[in-house]
């Protein structure tokens, strides 16, 4: 995790809470910020990439350890 990442810890919450918390953090984050989401809901494997693609964000990194999913999500680059 980068020192500048905004951390959203949604462990212990079930769908759709992790994605909703991620969305709120991304919407209020400054330009260029990256949000790290921690979630232990297995549905986050599907929900987070789907949300990101549909909302103009990109999953920069995805990992899993000890049943905890970790996503780094940022704004998709604009073409110009």
TrEMBL record:
Q: Which Gene3D superfamilies match?
A: TusA-like domain (3.30.110.40)
What is the protein name given in its UniProt record?
Sulfurtransferase TusA family protein
Source organism, top-level taxon: Bacteria
Organism of derivation: Phenylobacterium conjunctum
Homology family: Belongs to the sulfur carrier protein TusA family.
Domain UPF0033 intervals:
8-32
- Quote the Pfam families the UniProt record gives: TusA
Instruction: Name the InterPro entries on file.
Output: TusA-like, TusA-like_sf
